[in-house]
Amino acid sequence: MRYSQLFSKTSRDFPKDEVSSNAQLLIKAGYIYKEMAGAYAYLPLGLRVVEKIKQIVREEMNNIGGQEIIMTALQRKELWEKTDRWDDEKVDVWFKSALKNGTEVGFGWSHEEPISEMMKNYINSYKDLPIYVYQFQTKLRNELRAKSGIMRGREFVMKDMYSYSTTEEAHQKFYDATIDAYLKVFERVGLGDLTFLTFASGGAFTQFSHEFQTITEAGEDTVYLHREKKLAINEEVLTEEVMNQLGVKKDELEQVKTAEVGNIFSFGPTKSNQLGLNYVDEDGSSKPVILGSYGIGITRLMGVLVERFADEKGIIWPEAVAPYKVHLIGLNLEDENVKQKAESVYQVLKKMNVEVLFDDRLDASAGEKFADADLIGIPYRVVISKRTAEKAELKVRAESKSKEVSLEELFEAFK
Amino acid sequence: MRYSQLFSKTSRDFPKDEVSSNAQLLIKAGYIYKEMAGAYAYLPLGLRVVEKIKQIVREEMNNIGGQEIIMTALQRKELWEKTDRWDDEKVDVWFKSALKNGTEVGFGWSHEEPISEMMKNYINSYKDLPIYVYQFQTKLRNELRAKSGIMRGREFVMKDMYSYSTTEEAHQKFYDATIDAYLKVFERVGLGDLTFLTFASGGAFTQFSHEFQTITEAGEDTVYLHREKKLAINEEVLTEEVMNQLGVKKDELEQVKTAEVGNIFSFGPTKSNQLGLNYVDEDGSSKPVILGSYGIGITRLMGVLVERFADEKGIIWPEAVAPYKVHLIGLNLEDENVKQKAESVYQVLKKMNVEVLFDDRLDASAGEKFADADLIGIPYRVVISKRTAEKAELKVRAESKSKEVSLEELFEAFK
Fold first, then answer.
1. 1.20.1340.10, 3.30.930.10, 1.10.10.10, 3.30.465.10: which CATH number matches B21-73+108-311?
2. Assembly ipTM
3. pTM surpassing 0.90?
4. Stretch 84-123 of chain A: residues touching chain B, C-beta under 8 Å
């Protein structure tokens, strides 16, 4: 992509009411646009990051047998009444409206109910199970406050997966497989070292649910970390009993601020009983299906990445989620020789299937181009200029020193 | 994909209130699920078709310089008041709700306003233009009736593109390029012969807008077709004057029922004037940006494909949008030899990157498997059974006769 063509240019400004550092950076660098508090549009660079995160999650969910679907935003009142989650007193984030005939409708803030209701069409016998389905859904939540940028919004993209199993044992096996898959996702996006499986409060059915918490000052949660054992305990369940159970001592724990990037939850048969989602077992008896629910906040994850990987100059994307791999800067492009060299490097890299953002602007100074590259945060910066002559300058965004390389070495590096 | 694993099995049933033939077929074949009138979930097979259509559209929009973004569903009242399109008397398809602080919000039924408002951040000078942006957005429209299945819904996926140009001439050039790109899209999805560029009523700014109308009895529109000239006239503008202008005579025109699968529209400077979207021209003067708007109903297109390409047995997908290319049916799989052969064909095709749905069920009869394959409508059916011995049976869904081929010939056919 030629930067001269990209419409979402960098800017020094951001909306006055934007207090979160992730959104400020993403707005300045041209990744997102603020529509209103808690609702952001994703511009070409931002959408590329979202899609890369989604693809990593998709691959890991497919690996454990997940099947991708997409449910609706529109929600039926009668359905949510069955599980007593329609009432605003019970769930305080509903957006609601009405059809022309007066029927109330809601906008999906979660999808356990509609997916489980739908499964009544597809689950009859134990032979139909297990089923694992997931979606990347735009969730709408009427949050009272929305001041955390894309980390907590009124409109955001979430991957939610649901598992339908015959028995508690079968369920537990998939639940554990999901923990592994989630840890792989966070590893792949670059948050492996910073993200911890966290014990949090369960529900009617299990003692614990599990969260995946990433250490960041921008987070809203507090957890107690055991680095060696690679686990954490949410403060809400930090009791002597729980510590004993997990084999940790209070003074081994470190209190840290974190953001929840994923959570997984066992509903057991509870929701199936409410909705009448049963299967006929081998012995002919009818049993409730065991339900699990598994979320990853896709756009939240993007926000956490920005919070964690940035310096005073801008964003520093991990390579796996960067919008482009190489930021190619052409300087002195009014010089026909230099211009041809820069163009040729651009074309060769593109042919090699390397994703390149090519700053080919004629009306921007070297200083502006370097500052923009630092702000945008693409992992590798390559400069072609009069000064680099037959060579190129290669710099890793996260490092301070650049080096001169021959074009051969350059192409070799991106093979 | 193994059909035994796919949760969205075929069924003889569909909801009693479902009167449209596209939705009936798609529900029976396991592509979609009806959440409520006009709102459907897309199951694994259905989502694959949607994504294939999107990818074709994406490629053609990128080819003419489109940049992909995604706007928000949530809409600000003040913005839409500027163009006088907030009032329910003016726009009767709004879903509206309220934030916790009482502020009214709407849910996006169209996005000209927010995208154009956003562009005020990125357009200052003539040097910033042209800009072409598009998105695949889930539109929410509070339709009074929703009886056309996925052809007209309360919630549906639309590709909407917007062009921002300096002059009417520059605008017209892109407008014409979009016509070509749209015709390519409809050609690629298999509707080329059935889809006609149609002259429809313009607005304050131009005499005509253009629609792309596909011939189908399930359509809601009536157009007058000139097959030879490959154009049509919407009945709303069928006057002597228009016919003269287009060089056609009344008795050369054929009245047909059609569904609008795309439309393009010139706003001229109108919306820019309302929103204050101006640019500074070379001579230093401030001018309104010329706006064009270009839609393709993605899920509607899928509905039209089903309406057009089906027989009494089920759907017949054009290859470019089919969820899988090959429907591999294994019969007599209790026979270890046959099973191994079917498995090996499945693995070889997968390795060749051929998309295969493998009916590996042990508890379904040959008759059921054939009926399901016809209902699902994948272009090529391959049967491995005791009877086919060292060969395979290959049948094109759209044709009635099958032929025996050697495995070599089979793999050669899908190279």
1. 3.30.930.10
2. 0.97
3. yes
4. 95-97, 99-100, 105, 107, 114, 118-119, 121-122
